[in-house]
């Protein structure tokens, strides 16, 4: 569905993506993980054409991405970022339906689709007329998800969608998001720095380091056969203290 | 209404006259019909008005000029020639330029000014030479009205009597006399330096000071002699004797009326009416008229009407507009200046601001350019517009328009540039076209900033529009201008208070608009 072939990108002379090759198959859910600055988010921006690679090819549905395709590719792609990126001047409803209205869908069709999505994302209907500032962080992310899914895209790009949420809400949303991904069977690329979240939501993990793939596979593969000392360290660092050292963690919590 | 359009000889129908039934039509069609209606209304209006264009009398911005303007206006009206008086348009250059351009038809001028200033390059001297030179420009001149408003030396009556002073030559024998001269007279080649040389005067005790102060000083015995204009009302009031210019040093400044030669074809009765004035107003009478306005505080119209009744036996009624009428008229004029210029500025400045935000490099050029316009002093900007656009509303509108650009351009730019990156990126990522990104996200998010810019421009405009009176555009500046000339605080307040109130109302109106237009989600951020 999506393929990056030998893609390079740098910001003001500083290379961020260095000869990256990445394939995401239709219906597959891939989680990009890695330390800050490893180029995870840049990959999503490249796929959306928000950034242009210096070299290499980006394919969407086997077609090399060109300027002319940008709008249609973006409309076939749902994009959710950390703070939701909701437009503060629009209500939840207007945010979610913006693109559909722009494309002049019939109002009945829009209303129907919105109701469907509110149910799917478990967003309370009475919150639809609230502005983003009047919603909780978790609700905002649900609206962002509705907006991303409005046109029923083939691809979902999620850039740390749960990164700014507190643990309880995050837990709920992780569960809901997994159900949605499973149910809709979309092609998903998820960026997260949380290894457990990556394993929970992604079929495959791609560990990036300095703009290139260090290792990919399932979490158990990374744990069982780390390709480099970096992978071992990354995996080890993410193991929760709760699991590793229960006594000390409980002591600290007191 | 007193708003002349540039090309239509002073008058154009206002768009507001467009029939209102077109309001019901919707969408682009409505805009088109409205546009057609306006064009039609202006066209028909102009055609109708052209047959009935009244005579426009202009006057300079000082009391005697306004009185002569009123005399001219009233004498024409008495002959049933439709006439309007465009008061206090400015100085010689503006008035003569307006006469040549056909923006006015008649105004009062002085032969000395014609010879020394307007026709300086043509070396004209006698009345007939002046008349010929003017004729080549399509302008005619009446015979002198009778008063010669030139420089003279005035001496306190007691001193004159005591020393037996009658002519300027008599001053030679009294070198210890204390002279107070206006600064301008001290500096001008044809002022004190030349006078002193011609008469071989030896006074050492000569001070330069303001004209009005000189009168006060001579009134309290601090001076013995000063330069005066021969029609100054204060000559009689302060009991001065005007010394005879026995060596004919001072040029003659005979008052005449200048008028366009085409006036006779448009208003055949006008010339005969104007011909009643020459020769009927000597210095003493003019001093009296000036005094009635300047010292007694009477209105120019009344003074002129009384003079015409006395001199020509004409009964003319002056319709003094009530305060509410005056305020209403000026409010309309002021709103017209502010509204039209602001609307044009919004239409131009918002796209400029959008452009500046979209193309940062060119944007700096745009922002710099509108910034430079703002550094031009308001008064200078207005004056620059006169050669390009003449007088009345157009130069004022243009200056106001230019002044309004900066706040709107800058705030549009700042509003767009200040949108957080995640939001612009989200709009782009949704698959909105760049036009839709602007329409759906960029402009709505920049709206508070844009509105603030428009508000700033509007409030500045209300104040600045008072300067429009300097070029005859009317508005609240008119009474302020007259009030300054006559040193009459009530008149100044009659303009300043409504202007301040309008500024406050504008501010309030925009705050209301902000509350209505800015969605809840953007408020209090």
Report the C-alpha radius of gyration of chain B, rounded.
28 Å
Q: Could you report the average pLDDT of chain A, rounded to the nearest whole number?
A: 86
The spatial strand order of the largest sheet of chain A comes to 6-7-8-3-9-10
Which CATH class of one domain in chain A is shown?
Answer: Alpha Beta
Count up the domains of chain B: 3
- Our count of helices of chain B gives 22
Q: What's the story with the biggest beta sheet of chain A?
A: 6 strands, mixed
Number of strands of chain B: 10
Shape of chain A: globular
- Percent helix range of chain A: 40-55%
How are the strands of the biggest sheet of chain B laid out side by side?
2-1-3-10-4
Quaternary form: heterodimer
Number of helices of chain A: 11
Features:
heterodimer, A: alpha/beta, four-stranded antiparallel β-sheet, 42% helix, globular, disordered C terminus, B: 525 residues, alpha/beta, D-Maltodextrin-Binding Protein, domain 2, MetI-like fold, five-stranded mixed β-sheet
Structure description:
- The complex is a heterodimer of chains A (254) and B (525).
- Chain A has 254 residues and is α/β, with parallel strands linked by helices.
- Chain A has a domain at 1-76 and 187-254: P-loop containing nucleotide triphosphate hydrolases (Rossmann fold, 3-Layer(aba) Sandwich).
- Chain A is built from 11 helices and 10 strands.
- Chain A is globular.
- In chain A, 39% of the residues are buried.
- With 525 residues, chain B is an alpha/beta fold.
- Chain B folds into 3 domains: 54-147 and 253-312, D-Maltodextrin-Binding Protein, domain 2 (3-Layer(aba) Sandwich); 151-242, D-Maltodextrin-Binding Protein, domain 2, CATH 3.40.190; 323-522, MetI-like (MetI-like fold, Orthogonal Bundle).
- In chain B, the strands form 2 sheets. A 5-stranded mixed beta sheet of chain B has the order 2-1-3-10-4. A 5-stranded mixed beta sheet of chain B has the order 7-6-8-5-9.
- In chain B, helix 2 (63-78) links the parallel strand 1 (55-60) and strand 2.
- In chain B, 44% of the residues are buried.
- Classes of the chains: A alpha/beta (254), B alpha/beta (525).
């Amino acid at each position: 569905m999506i393929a990056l072939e030998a893609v390079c990108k740098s910001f003001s002379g500083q290379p961020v993506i260095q000869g990256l090759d990445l394939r995401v198959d239709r219906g597959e859910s891939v989680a990009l993980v890695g330390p800050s600055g490893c180029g995870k988010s840049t990959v999503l921006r490249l796929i959306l054409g928000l950034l242009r690679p210096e070299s290499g090819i980006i394919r969407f549905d086997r077609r090399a991405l060109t300027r002319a395709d940008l709008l249609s590719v973006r409309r076939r792609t749902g994009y959710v970022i950390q703070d939701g990126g909701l437009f503060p001047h629009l209500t939840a409803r207007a945010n979610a339906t913006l693109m559909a209205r722009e494309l002049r869908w019939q109002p009945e069709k829009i209303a129907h689709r919105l109701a469907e999505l509110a149910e799917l994302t478990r967003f309370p209907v009475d919150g639809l007329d609230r502005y983003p500032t009047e919603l909780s962080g978790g609700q905002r992310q649900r609206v962002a998800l509705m907006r991303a899914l409005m046109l029923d895209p083939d691809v979902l790009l999620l850039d740390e969608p749960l990164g700014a949420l507190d643990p309880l809400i995050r837990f709920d949303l992780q569960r809901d998001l997994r159900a949605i991904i499973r149910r809709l069977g979309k092609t998903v690329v998820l960026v997260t720095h949380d290894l457990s979240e990556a394993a929970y939501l992604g079929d495959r993990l791609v560990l990036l380091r300095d703009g290139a793939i260090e290792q990919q596979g399932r979490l158990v593969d990374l744990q069982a056969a780390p390709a480099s000392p970096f992978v071992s360290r990354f995996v080890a660092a993410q193991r929760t203290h709760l699991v590793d050292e229960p006594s000390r963690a409980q002591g600290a919590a007191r | 209404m007193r708003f002349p359009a540039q090309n239509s000889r002073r008058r154009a129908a206002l768009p507001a006259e467009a029939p209102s039934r077109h309001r019901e039509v919707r969408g682009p069609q409505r805009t088109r019909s409205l546009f057609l209606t306006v064009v039609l209304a202006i066209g028909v209006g102009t055609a109708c008005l052209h047959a009935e264009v009244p005579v426009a009398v202009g006057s300079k911005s000082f009391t005697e000029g306004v009185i002569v303007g009123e005399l001219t206006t009233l004498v024409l009206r008495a002959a049933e020639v439709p006439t309007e008086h465009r008061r206090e348009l400015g100085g010689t250059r503006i008035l003569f330029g307006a006469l040549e351009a056909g923006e006015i038809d008649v105004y009062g001028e002085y032969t000395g000014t014609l010879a020394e200033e307007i026709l300086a390059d043509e070396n004209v001297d006698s009345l007939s030479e002046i008349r010929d030179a003017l004729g080549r420009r399509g302008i005619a001149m009446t015979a002198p009205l009778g008063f010669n408003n030139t420089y003279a030396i005035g001496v306190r009556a007691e001193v004159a009597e005591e020393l037996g002073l009658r002519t300027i030559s008599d001053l030679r024998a009294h070198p210890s006399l204390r002279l107070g001269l206006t600064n301008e007279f001290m500096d001008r080649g044809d002022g004190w330096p030349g006078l002193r040389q011609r008469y071989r005067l030896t006074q050492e005790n000569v001070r330069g000071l303001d004209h009005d102060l000189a009168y006060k000083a001579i009134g309290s015995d601090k001076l013995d002699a000063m330069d005066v204009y021969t029609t100054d009302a204060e000559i009689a009031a302060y009991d001065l004797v005007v010394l005879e210019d026995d060596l004919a040093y001072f040029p003659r400044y005979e008052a005449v009326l200048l008028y366009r030669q085409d006036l006779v074809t448009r208003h055949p009765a006008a010339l005969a009416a104007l011909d009643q004035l020459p020769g009927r107003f000597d210095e003493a009478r003019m001093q009296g008229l000036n005094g009635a306005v300047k010292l007694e505080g009477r209105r120019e119209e009344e003074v002129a009407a009384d003079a015409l009744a006395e001199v020509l036996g004409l009964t003319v009624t002056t319709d003094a507009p009530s305060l509410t009428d005056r305020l209403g008229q000026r409010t309309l004029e002021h709103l017209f200046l502010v509204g039209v210029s602001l609307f044009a500025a919004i239409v131009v400045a918002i796209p400029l601001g959008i452009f500046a935000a979209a193309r940062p490099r060119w944007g700096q050029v745009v922002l710099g350019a509108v910034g430079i316009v703002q550094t031009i002093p308001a008064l200078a900007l207005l004056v620059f517009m006169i050669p390009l656009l003449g007088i009345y509303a157009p130069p004022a509108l243009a200056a106001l328009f230019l002044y309004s650009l900066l706040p709107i351009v800058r705030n549009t730019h700042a509003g767009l540039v200040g949108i957080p990156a995640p939001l612009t990126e989200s709009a782009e990522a949704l698959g909105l076209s760049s036009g839709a990104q602007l329409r759906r996200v960029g402009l709505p998010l920049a709206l508070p900033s844009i509105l603030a810019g428009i508000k700033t421009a509007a409030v500045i405009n209300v104040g600045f529009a008072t300067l429009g009176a300097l070029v005859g555009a009317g508005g609240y500046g008119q009474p302020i201008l007259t009030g300054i000339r006559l040193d009459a605080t009530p008149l100044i307040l009659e303009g300043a208070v409504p202007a301040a109130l309008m500024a406050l109302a504008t501010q309030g109106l925009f705050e209301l608009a902000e509350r209505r237009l800015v969605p809840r989600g953007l408020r209090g951020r």
